[in-house]
Amino acid sequence: MVSPADKKNTDVLGAMKLKGAIANSSIRARLSVLIILNSSLALLLAGVALFGYETYQQRQAATRELSANAGILAESATAALSFNDEHAAAQILAALRGDQNIVEAVIYDRYGLPFSRYQRDGKLRSSSPPLRPAGAYFENGTLLAFQSINLGPDRLGTILLRSTNDVYDRLRRFIVIVCVVMILSLGLSVLLGSRTQRSIANPITALSVVARRVSVEKDYSVRASRITGGEIGSLIDSFNDMLTQIEAHETARQTAEESLRESEERYALAARGANDGLWDWKLSTNKMYFSPRWNQMLGYEDAELGTSPEEWFSRIHPSDRERVMQEACEAWDGRKPLLTTEYRMRHKNGSFIWVLTRGLAVRDDKGGTDRMAGSQTDITEGKIADPLTALPNRLYFTDRLDSAIETAHQHGGLFAVLFLDLDKFKLVNDSLGHAAGDELLMGVALRLRLSAFASVPEGNGNASVIARLGGDEFSILLYDVRDEGDAIILAERILEKLKAPFQIEGRQMFASASVGIALSSSGETPEDLMRNADTAMYQAKAKGKSRYEVFNEQMRELAMARLEIETDLRKAIDERQLVLYYQAEVSLSNHRTIGYEALVRWNHPTRGILSPAEFVPVAEESDLIVHLGRWVLREACRQMAVWHERYPCEPPLTISVNVSPRQLSDPRLLQDVEDVLAETGLSPRCLHLEVTESSIMGNPDAALTTLRRLKLLNVGLEIDDFGTGYSSLSCLHLLPFDTVKIDRSFIKELGFGEGSEIVRTILALARSLDMSVVAEGVETKEQTHTLTDLGCNFAQGYYFSKPKSCQTTEALLEERSQLHHAFNLLQGGNPPGNPGLEYQRKTELMAS
Amino acid sequence: MVLRLSLAMVLAAQFGGDLRAQLDEYQVKAAFLQNFAKFIEWPAEAFSSPSEPFTICVLGQDPFGRSLDDAVAGKLIATHPIAARRIADARLTAGCQILYVSSSQQKHVFSILAAGKQTGILTVGEARDGSPEDVVINLTLEQGKVRFEINLRKANEEKLHISARLLSLATVVRK
């Protein structure tokens, strides 16, 4: 059951649907509907108008015709009516038989009563129609014409003619024709319209297809083909232009988007790759954004920290805070273009991490800043770790040491600092290169780690800190020791570990270290403890290396003394407290003195004469040795020149001067020698420079160059302490030495197994290289005989002469000169050489 | 409106029928006399002026009574008002356009008329069996209906031109 309201709704819906259908239908369909509707309406209106006009015309014609007939009959009937002659009237009406259409005629008299009647089919049907006023009437498909019959002014009656009107037949035919014409016209207009409609709809349809494709596929490279002109043509052109612009725009947008995305991605990757945290600080709201990594760096979850700058500043180490804030202010102000600062921040777990913060203040057009953003990098590892060995560095070590001291202060307890320095590491570095040196350091670091951890009880991760302080210096912080014994155990283990050879660049290498131990009780500050350990280490080194020493108060005193010596020595050079002693070098063939070795002594104002062992090592640690060496060189040459003048002999006495390693690498050495020779007038051949084997091996190339240059000055070159260094006997021929000095340690061994062999080998080598050999430290007659037997030329030692002061030496020379003189007088000729050993020994004995 | 008109027509028809039913012979004849004037043209000399009355004269015994006077009262033939006159003597026909001669006088009258030189008089008689050739129009009764005969020779003599429509109703006599 459908209620009226529903029905109305349905109708409305139906209408809306229809409207919608039209609205949604294609242009083509709409154009078709439009054309059909318009054509139909136009044709219908034309048809109706034509029909109306035709109807009117037909009626008019019919009416006119019938009225004319009626008029004629009326005229004819006047007499019959006038004279009431029905017969005549009937006859008049009968004349209508000639007219097919007139089916009935009636003459009414002046009273309106039928007077005469005519019917076409002859049968009288019903009564005659009632009288009406004059005029034409259509009734039941017939036309009625009433015409009054007048004679002059008199009205005699009325005549009626009824015509079976063919008007309607004609109209019907007319309608049929009109309908046919309408249908044909409609068909034709639809036909023509469809062509027009195609020419309109097709381009638009094509355009809409393209537009749909563009919107669905997002392909802006398609174009609508221009298949028509006019507005649609220009619409297509505009559409294509628009597409071109969109395409360009789209391409640009995509490119920009792409590059933006890439750059964002790149930045995100970079930040992630760098493991950097990001921050963004807006001043107007005083809020900060911290990236997840920023929080994580400090041990916090994302949501744990707020957005206040306090979250940042409150976590900065108190000692760094003020500086960082200062630097941040400078970046805000623009006094510095960038904020770049390193500082410590408190981790959630209470420890401090090192961070590097970089920031950039964003300036607006007016130069104001509301925003600063940047990155934060955890540099703790780089800050505290040594890149080569991956051990903690000095910074970290000091930091740990600080807290260890603090802990010890608060809770008592003892800990130890071990200071470790590789022996002769410089030699390794210089002879084998830095790569080898680095490799060795890494090897040592590994063994240190193994040693240290092996000494730590299980589960005590904090038991020690091993750090590389720089160069070949390592340091170990050993917690919780009972006494120095614990530290000694570790030191011994380390020394033991280091004994095994290292495999460096395919060759075996031995390394040793000297270890200094300082207990926490020995000092108050980190600097104290480090210095104490360092002192102990020096002590160990001084005592022969590859050993350890525990710091004690004596060492402090010793250290103080060393410091004192260093200070005094500097003064001593200037104040001429240094003196030279001369030790004779004798020919083993006749025991005559052929020259002297100049040996420095320090005539200390309070401590008396000091041997070189007491101050030269101190001098060697600084450039004092260069000054010292220079003084020795000059003084020795000067003295020898004086003696040459005073006590001439043939061949002239030689003077040997020691050149320390530092001097050898001193670029001024060559110049100094030249100057001294020129100054003193000493013959270069009389000056013998003694160079230790080890000082050459420190930097062989440079040393060789210097030696060759010296050789060019014609000075004699002696290799000192031969046999103790690393240089093998085989490379001796490469060096421009004239003389080899055999180290006293081998002379001491003479007559005991291998000792003689080494000396023999050296002698054979020297002989083959045309070098003279001086045996050092000859103390006994047996040694003298052995050396003579072995074919050694020269010797030096207590057996012949101790080092003597300048005055003593000069006195001997004076004496010898006089003896020589006397001898000459006795012999009446030139003496064959220097005074003999026998004589010298005699005088020596006398002098002592 | 149409209904009212139709009703009026019906009433008029009934009333008219009543009127016509009441007409007696002389009332019809009086109308005929007047009607003849409408189908006949008189020579110009029949009237001395346009306003001169068209006079219907009744000679001898008057059978019309008042009906003739009623019929013509207020009527015009062209410009001429119709008048009815009764005359006793045939010589007094001057000024008459129609002269009705009663059957009693007919023979006598015509001889008089024939003797006169006057023309343009439509003579109307009602000889039932006599000599109709004496008058221009002779009224007869056929089955109760008034009919007439027209003597064309007489009409020509009187210089009257009779309409063909009138002639078509009449029995035409040419002698």
Protein architecture, described:
The complex is a heterodimer of chains A (848) and B (175). Chain A is of the alpha+beta class and 848 residues long. Chain B is α/β, with parallel strands linked by helices. Chain B has one domain: Rossmann fold, CATH 3.40.50. Helix content of chain B is 36%, strand content 25%. In chain B, strands 3-4-2-5-6-7-8-10 form an eight-stranded mixed β-sheet. In chain B, a hairpin with a 2-residue loop joins strand 3 (76-77) and strand 4 (80-87). The A-B interface holds A 76, 78-80, 82-85, 88, 109-113, 130-133, 151-154 and B 5-6, 9-10, 12-13, 15-17, 19-20, 28, 32, 35, 38-39, 76, 78, 145-148, 163, 165-166, 168-169.
Main traits of this protein?
heterodimer, A: 848 residues, alpha+beta, Beta-Lactamase, Alpha-Beta Plaits, 4 domains, 8-stranded mixed β-barrel, 5-stranded antiparallel β-sheet, 27 strands, 52% helix, disordered C terminus, B: 175 residues, alpha/beta, Rossmann fold, 8-stranded mixed β-sheet, two-stranded antiparallel sheet
If classified by CATH, what would the architecture of chain B be? 3-Layer(aba) Sandwich
The number of E-state strands of chain A comes to 27
Give the topology string of chain B: H per helix, E per strand. HHEEHEEEHEEEHEHE
The total tally of domains of chain B equals 1
Number of helices of chain B: 6
Q: What's the rounded overall pLDDT mean of chain B? A: 76
Largest sheet of chain B: 8 strands, mixed
The span between the termini of chain B is 56 Å
Most extensive chain contact?
A: A-B, 22 and 27 residues
Structural class of chain B: alpha/beta
Query: Going by CATH, what is the homologous superfamily of the largest domain in chain A?
Result: EAL domain
The whole-angstrom Rg of chain A is 68 Å
What kind of oligomer do you see?
heterodimer
Distance between the termini of chain A: 157 Å
Beta-strand portion of chain A reads 15-25%
Any low-confidence stretches of chain B, pLDDT <50, length ≥5? 1-21
